[in-house]
Amino acid sequence: MATRREVAELAGVSEATVSRVMNGVGPIKEETRRKVAAAADRLGYQLNALASGFAKGRSGNIGVVLPHVPKVRLFSTYYFSEILSGIGDVLHQAGYGLLLLYRNPQARYDYVSLYRTRRVDACLILGASDLPEEAASVFALADEGLPCCVVDQRYARPGLPCVGADHRAGAYAAARYMLDAGHRRIGFLNGSPHYSNSADRYEGYRQALAETGLSPDPAIQFEGNYSRKSGQEAAGAIFDRLEALDGLLCANDRMAIGAIQGLRERGVAVPERLPVIGYDNSDASSLTDPPLTTVEVPFYEMGRLAAESVMARLSGESGGSSGVEVAEGAAAYHANGSKPAAEDILLPTQLIIRRSC
Amino acid sequence: MATRREVAELAGVSEATVSRVMNGVGPIKEETRRKVAAAADRLGYQLNALASGFAKGRSGNIGVVLPHVPKVRLFSTYYFSEILSGIGDVLHQAGYGLLLLYRNPQARYDYVSLYRTRRVDACLILGASDLPEEAASVFALADEGLPCCVVDQRYARPGLPCVGADHRAGAYAAARYMLDAGHRRIGFLNGSPHYSNSADRYEGYRQALAETGLSPDPAIQFEGNYSRKSGQEAAGAIFDRLEALDGLLCANDRMAIGAIQGLRERGVAVPERLPVIGYDNSDASSLTDPPLTTVEVPFYEMGRLAAESVMARLSGESGGSSGVEVAEGAAAYHANGSKPAAEDILLPTQLIIRRSC
């Protein structure tokens, strides 16, 4: 049987182009497609992904692992949608398949088997946390040296790359903005501290308060699960503490929108009685009444960089141009206070000022 | 080597449960997981997805084919997000992988090769149209008798099942509501007529007008591509025809939101000067100012049914309980005027009244 290289040579294209044509993926010019098809025909070459994957030990698929949360439509959340779009665009260009896998957050997940059974060549892990079972599953990957990247969760573990955002700086900017406007009793509706991104936001909030000689008041710390519903439910507890509050930070826009809705139902006007700042700069943040002051996070770019990181690893170019470029930008950024592991990339965040605060 | 059946018998569970445990997917009780792992250990059974797939001719993956539109983040659109969530939940339960594949809408797509090369066991096709190259790609599947389902696009071709929604009835209800409120010069901002769902909406609109002795005025028919930006761009043409208009239907909420935004920039108040009705009942529709009157479409359910249809086909139960139940409900519904192929399922739509009309 002819090889991919022979087909590429006869057609005058790259081997990657041959793969894309044969797998029917990627933006391919009709003329290129015809040249490759003609060369493959002439050489009797037929790509059998499974057979060829078996031979070379590769599936051509990248696993994207999502937490499975019953009754929550992950694709409908801005967070996962943007990250998946960034991942999807990179894999599409590279001719890889994107295999979506769901993980039960309570159970130990056998990532290593996914590679052993050759269902995936690399894994991108979304929505992971510090919970022991979950961390242990992920650490096993690093211990085996398998290509992977954790998205928006820092483990600070050698051999386990992470692409996230500087949520410490993001929450710091939001709290600083409220403090500069004269607010002093700023509550925080955060997500579970098991996520490093929640913990980082808390740290930025704490740091801004500390610079003003304040410290977080435990009575005005609230917790949700990043859903709109949990924000609406938290509105009850926030309302009970209203006298102790003159501002509220929320760890994402969905919780902010839910909280504002719940507060409005209790007769509390935002921003007149209680200024609120969201987080994410999601599509919804500019559509709500009032439009949300929020923190922009480049989630699409986060997905792109995570996918590029495993692509570089798979093509044996982890020290190549693309990887180095990213690492240098990130290293410069890291100088700014946080202490991620060498492999970690933290993207910058930006305060977006609208009318909710 | 031991078989999956032997492991299942020793562990006292179903073969499907063994697969879910060995593939690390699905919600599995810890106790069950341990029993299966112990039985597999004892029998020396190790699932190698690629090898076992090669032997039985199955990959364990279902292909979900999306159109690739450069610079459009498909995951961020309510339409694709909801359908994918429905598909994902069913495949997760069944222990199948969801392999996302992108299709270039301009090129012929070789679906049949996807099966021949065993990358997928079945295909779900989203965002397909009547364009000749695209239809020819899809028809080849039906001709080969391969398991597949087309989502929200009717081809009325034997052997090619489709799960969609009754957009004729949805657009009819929206136009009827405007007519009942006394509006007579109702414009329509539709998507490309190459999609059967656009054509069905137009037909519902036409039918409602006809019942009132009116017919669609070509001067107030507008076309977008279902993006918010295209709605905003269409606002120019709509503004130019404002004297000929006393109402506007839009084929989705995103175009409606863009059009309202573009009209507002030109000093046209919605609904005071021009009432507008959207379509989809997306998350955004209740957040905008004014909240959109719109048509609810059960996209999540659409994804579920499409996935269940190929699951039933793969387990050889296409005449089984689940399939028949669905088909009967659909058949009853079909009695209501539209004429889909026998395999087509059209879900009901519902008018949601808010403040934009």
UniProtKB/TrEMBL annotation, chains A, B:
Signal peptide: none annotated. One of its GO terms (molecular function) is transcription cis-regulatory region binding. Keywords: DNA-binding, Transcription, Transcription regulation. Residues 2-56 form the HTH lacI-type domain. It comes from the Bacteria. Pfam families: LacI, Peripla_BP_3. SMART domains: HTH_LACI. InterPro entries: HTH_LacI (IPR000843), LacI/GalR-like_sensor (IPR046335), Lambda_DNA-bd_dom_sf (IPR010982), Peripla_BP_I (IPR028082). This is LacI family transcriptional regulator.
